[in-house]
Write a structure and sequence with these properties.
- This protein is mostly beta strands.
- Helices cover 7% and strands 42% of the residues.
- The radius of gyration is 51 Å and the shape is rod-shaped.
- It starts with a helix and ends with a strand.
- 27% of the residues are buried.
Length: 448
C-alpha cells in the first residue's frame, strides 16, 4: 500500500509559476509538481517493496575418490540396505583374497567369483568385492535473497484557484481560457493539473508613457489522489503576484473650427494629463495614441481605434496636434467653466479674436471606455440652451472614442449630430437649437 502521508507531503511541494505567453494581457500559470512525482508516464508515486526469491548461490567444485567394500549379512537379512543400520545384521566383511593364499586350505569357503569383482567401468580390488571410484562435481546451492519490487501508482491532481487584489478583495473583469473561449472567473475555480490562462482588460487614463500595472494575487490549493484510496486533504500553496498592464487611453476632446476636422483647434484635456505640456515627460497626441493603439492592438486587434482611427487619413491632422500659436490651444481641466479664456487668435482691439468658445463645427473625442463628457452651451455649465453629452461605451470592444464630422445647425429637437461609424454615443439632455458654434463650457466624468 502506498504511503499516503508522503503523498500529502508531496502535495505541499507543488508551486504555481508563470508559463511563457506572448500576450501581456493573457498570462499563463502552471502547477509545477515536485520532481519526485514526475515520471515518463505522467505524475506517479513509486512504491518499493521487498520480496524473498530463491536464487543460485556460489558454485563449489567437489572432487572425491571413494572405495566401496562389500559386507556380509545374515542369511535371513532382507535384500537391500535397511533404513536402520542396527537391523542390517552385518556379520563381517568379505574375505580378503590374496594371491599367496590361492590354493591354500582355508577354514571357510571363498566368495563366488562373480562377487569378487566390481561393476564394469570401476576398478576392482583383488580379494575384496567392491568398487573404487572417483567423481568431480560442480555444486550450485539455491539460496533465498531479498529482491526489491516497484509498483507505480498514477497520481491525480485537483486544484482550486482564486484571484484577488493586493488587499485580498475579490476582483471583477478577470476571465480564464476554455476551449470554448473566455469565461468570467468565478469566486473559486476548480481545475485539474493543466495550465491556467487568465485575461484582464482594464483601461486607465494615460498619464505617462509607462502603462499602469494592476497586480493580481493568485492563490491555488491542491490535493492528490491514487485510484482506490481517499484523496489527501487540501493543501494551500504559496500565492503568486501576477502583474497585468492596463491599457492607457488619453482623454482628449478636440474642437475643430470647420467641419471635417479643419481649421484651428481647441484641445481639451482633464487634470493630470501630460498631453501638450511643455515639461519633461510630456506627451504629444500622436505619442499618446501610439502607446494606446500598441497595447490595445495586443488585447483586441479588432478594436476600431486600431483598425479605423489610426489608419484613417481624415484623422492624421488630429495625430499631429501640438500647441501652436494662432492654430492650436490646449484647455486643461476636468471642469472647464469658460472656454473663452483659451485664446487661439488674439485679434486686434477685440476684432478677430478667436477662443475655444463657440468655435466648434466638428469634434473628435478619445477617452477611456466609460468616460462621459458633458458639453454646455452656456458658461459655468449652464443648460439654458442646450447640453450635448458624449459617452464612450465601456468594455473591451469599445472604440474608445467618437468623431462628429459636422455639428449641425438644425433646431429640430429630433436631430442629433451625425456620428461616424468610428463609434461612441451622443445624447442631448435638451436638444433645443443646433450645436454648431454653441459650446462654452464642459466637464469630464472619467471612470474610476
Amino acid at each position: 500500500m502506498p504511503d499516503l502521508s508522503k503523498l500529502e507531503q508531496l502535495a505541499s511541494q507543488f508551486r504555481v509559476a508563470p508559463a511563457p505567453t506572448a500576450n501581456p494581457f493573457e498570462p499563463k500559470l502552471a502547477l509545477q509538481p515536485p520532481a519526485e512525482l514526475v515520471t515518463s508516464g505522467g505524475l506517479a508515486i513509486i512504491e518499493v517493496t521487498e520480496k524473498l526469491e530463491k536464487v543460485p548461490g556460489l558454485a563449489t567444485l567437489y572432487e572425491v575418490t571413494y572405495a566401496l567394500k562389500n559386507v556380509r549379512f545374515a542369511p535371513d537379512a532382507p535384500i537391500g540396505i535397511l533404513s536402520d543400520p542396527q537391523a542390517e545384521q552385518v556379520i563381517g566383511g568379505m574375505p580378503v583374497m590374496l594371491p599367496t593364499l590361492v590354493g591354500a586350505v582355508l577354514n571357510h569357503d571363498l566368495a563366488k567369483a562373480t562377487l569378487m569383482s566390481s561393476e564394469p567401468g570401476n576398478e576392482s580390488l583383488p580379494g575384496v568385492p567392491g568398487v573404487l571410484a572417483s567423481f568431480k562435481a560442480k555444486v550450485t546451492p539455491e539460496v533465498e535473497k531479498s529482491v526489491p519490487t516497484t509498483i507505480t501508482h498514477a497520481v491525480s491532481v485537483e486544484s482550486s484557484w482564486t484571484v484577488r487584489d493586493k488587499e485580498g478583495n475579490l476582483v471583477g473583469g478577470i476571465f480564464y481560457g476554455t476551449p470554448e473561449g473566455w469565461v468570467p472567473f468565478p469566486t473559486e475555480l476548480a481545475r485539474g493539473a493543466g495550465e491556467l490562462q487568465l485575461r484582464s482588460i482594464a483601461f486607465a487614463q494615460l498619464k505617462s508613457s509607462t502603462p499602469e500595472v494592476h497586480d493580481y494575487v493568485v492563490q491555488a490549493r491542491v490535493r492528490l489522489s491514487i485510484a482506490g484510496h481517499p484523496p489527501t486533504s487540501w493543501v494551500t500553496l504559496p500565492s503568486i503576484t501576477v502583474p497585468i498592464p492596463t491599457i492607457p487611453v488619453p482623454a482628449i476632446l478636440a474642437l475643430f473650427e470647420h467641419k471635417d476636422f479643419g481649421g484651428r483647434v481647441c484641445v481639451c484635456v482633464p487634470d493630470g494629463s501630460l498631453i501638450g505640456l511643455d515639461v519633461p515627460g510630456s506627451l504629444s497626441v500622436a505619442g499618446a495614441l501610439a502607446t494606446t493603439s500598441g497595447l490595445l492592438g495586443a488585447a483586441n486587434p479588432a478594436n476600431q481605434l486600431v483598425t479605423t482611427f489610426m489608419t484613417a487619413e481624415a484623422f492624421q491632422r488630429f495625430l499631429s496636434l501640438a500647441p501652436q500659436a494662432k492654430q492650436v490651444v490646449f484647455a486643461r481641466g476636468t471642469r472647464i467653466p469658460d472656454l473663452s479664456k483659451y485664446e487661439i487668435e488674439p485679434g486686434f482691439a477685440g476684432v478677430g479674436r478667436l477662443t475655444g468658445e463657440d468655435m466648434a463645427s466638428s469634434l473628435i473625442c478619445i477617452a477611456p471606455p466609460g468616460t462621459v463628457v458633458n458639453i454646455f452651451a452656456d458658461r459655468d455649465y449652464g443648460t439654458g440652451i442646450t447640453k450635448l453629452q458624449l459617452t464612450i461605451a465601456p468594455g473591451i470592444d469599445s472604440p474608445c472614442g467618437l468623431a462628429i464630422t459636422e455639428l449641425n445647425h438644425s433646431a429640430d429637437e429630433l436631430i442629433l449630430p451625425d456620428v461616424t461609424t468610428y463609434g461612441g454615443k451622443v445624447t442631448s439632455a435638451r436638444p433645443k437649437g443646433g450645436y454648431h458654434d454653441m459650446i462654452s463650457s464642459l466637464e469630464w466624468i472619467l471612470p474610476d
